[in-house]
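At your convenience, could you comment on the folded chain following this short note?
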Amino acid sequence: MAVPKKKTSYSRQRMRRSHDHIKIHPVGTCKQCSESCFPHHMCLKCGYYNGRKVIITKAERRSLKRNTKES
């Protein structure tokens, strides 16, 4: 098994770990509901992506269930 001959200096250790920091994710706004969401992702609040409806949200699903029970 390989064993290091010398102790790594603090400078070299910190230079190696310079890329391990936490990155801040960019945040955009939804064009439909103006909520904050990640760019190139669908909006979790309204279910739109790039100007078209992609999924049915939980709130819409609940209202559909209520409408079917009433009628």
About this structure: The longest strand covers residues 28-29. The radius of gyration is 24 Å.
